[in-house]
Write a structure and sequence with these properties.
single chain, alpha+beta, 27 strands, globular
């Protein structure tokens, strides 16, 4: 199956003018240090060779292919070009799970485009996306394309190719009223905006002993939940950040990490929260925090008047809190996790649904980040040196095997799509009659001579065992040879 997927991918990419090559699995660490990713990519397996050279085992090949580009691409006449390899990768994942869905070692297709400008990148990007659609169509998978987070790859536009599956690790938001599709890490939605008071009320500190959780708090204070505020304290690399969000929503940590441009993001421990605020967890607020703490707020907090917030004192909350009067107005950004039932940004309907999905492919418009980091430039027709504009495109081939099985099966076992099935025909001889076995062997030879791939089950087992195994294996065509079939 891997071999057939490998061939289909190469054929469809070749139709778009993509050139195939093979890059090394072991990289000198110096390349990764050039881009700054040596200390940023958590799954990077680092080691020292017998000669004392710092090396990494490749989790991806942006650095290597950019190194190739700066050596072989010199002028605009060398562009555009797209290079691809189907190569094994290694990522030192903390958790490898789900069979083939998340493994440390995996086979991946990764292509990289090089262009003069954004217009050229858009054309290369569209060409590979078209090839991807052709690949998944040949395989027989019902693919959804969603907006996605760019992760550690950098660049701008990013899309995922996913297949809906109950076992999928990804969660996607799908609008049932229009074509909007997005990964939870990237999803946006409209949120309810409520009418605000016209006048600022005097801020008050109210005791609410043991009141943790916005529903209980709102009920006690005789407020609506949307009038409450969650203030969460995060360690973002070397800085502490307080994040405000309206009480009826939760923080999307991926959005927050991207906004803060940090490598590591973790909630403060209860001990650290108490040390910083003087209060137990659940009572943090944006007022009177140490100056070193940066305060940011989700867009749901913008333009609010007379809202609740923690008082940074155990069992106490502030009501009628207002920006600027009570504390400096913070930065605002989209930091909210979208919920099922939210209004779609596209059509405005309450139609967003959460689905589980398996990521099959991912495409990025990298732009010039890698070429600028590594000095991969070309001389344009105006005689000026410019950074090459890059794109990156990947399909997890071994994961694709698992995705096909999860999508193409029934209660008895796998149903392989014909294009990638390990064999064309499952030939089964039933019974111990020499005449039956001879007929099956003759048919096996005829079919193989005609170019068919045959799985021939001539085991000395019962019909039930053989047929159950055949259902489990799921070869598209099954031929049974028995006394009864020979009679007919």
């Amino acid at each position: 199956v891997l071999s057939k997927l490998d061939q289909i991918i190469k054929e469809e990419l070749a139709k778009k003018g993509v050139q195939h090559l093979l890059m090394p699995l072991v990289h000198p660490a110096s390349l990764w240090k050039e881009t700054g990713r040596y200390d940023k990519v958590d799954v990077l397996l680092k080691f020292t060779s017998a000669r004392g050279t710092d090396c990494v085992l490749a989790p991806t090949h942006e650095e290597t292919v950019t190194d190739l580009a700066r050596k072989y691409i010199h002028t605009y006449k060398d562009l555009p070009v797209t290079l691809n390899q189907n190569q094994w990768k290694y990522r030192d994942e903390m958790r490898a799970t789900g069979g083939l869905l998340r493994t440390r070692e995996f086979l991946m297709q990764d292509a990289y485009s090089f262009d003069r400008d954004q217009e050229g990148l858009n054309k290369s990007f569209d060409d590979v996306v078209e090839a991807y659609h052709a690949i998944f169509k040949r395989i027989g998978l019902d693919i959804i394309v969603v907006k996605a987070d760019r992760g550690t790859m950098g660049g701008s536009d990013s899309q995922e190719f996913v297949v809906v599956s109950d076992v999928g690790e990804d969660r996607i938001l799908v609008c049932e009223g229009c074509s909007y599709r997005a990964n939870m890490e990237k999803a946006e939605s409209q949120f309810e905006v409520y009418e605000q008071d016209k006048e600022l009320k005097k801020m008050e500190k109210v005791e609410g002993k043991g009141l943790i959780g916005v529903e209980n708090l709102a009920k006690f204070l005789k407020l609506e939940v949307h009038q409450t505020t969650k203030t969460l304290l995060f360690q973002a690399d070397d800085d502490v950040v307080a994040v405000m969000i309206r009480g009826d929503y939760d923080v999307n940590e991926t959005k927050l990490a991207n906004y803060l441009c940090c490598k590591h993001l973790n909630l403060l421990t209860p001990e650290a929260v108490k040390s910083l605020t003087g209060a137990e967890v659940g009572y943090a607020g944006p007022l009177n925090l140490p100056k070193k703490v940066k305060v940011v707020a989700d867009l749901t907090c913008k333009d609010r008047v007379n809202f609740e917030a923690g008082a940074n004192e155990t069992d106490f909350h502030n009501i009628n809190v207002n920006f600027e009067r009570d504390f400096p107005t913070p930065e605002f950004a989209d930091l909210r996790e979208v919920r099922e039932g939210d209004k779609c940004m596209g059509c405005g309907k309450d139609s967003l649904k959460i689905k589980s999905a398996i990521e099959m492919g991912h495409v990025f418009k990298l732009g010039t980040c890698y070429s600028e980091w590594m000095g991969a430039n070309f001389v344009d027709n105006d005689g000026k040196s410019k950074p090459i504009v890059m794109g990156c495109y990947g399909i997890g081939i071994s994961r694709l095997v698992a995705g096909i099985v999860e999508s193409c099966h029934d209660e008895k076992g796998i149903i392989w799509p014909a294009a990638v099935a390990p064999y064309h025909v499952h030939l089964v001889s039933l019974g111990k009659d020499e005449k039956v076995l001879k007929a099956a062997e003759d048919l096996d030879k005829v079919l193989q001579d005609e170019g068919f791939e045959i799985l021939f089950d001539d085991r000395d087992d019962s019909a039930g065992v053989k047929l159950n195994d055949a259902d489990l294996l799921g070869i598209p065509v099954r031929i049974l040879i028995s006394n009864r079939t020979l009679e007919k």
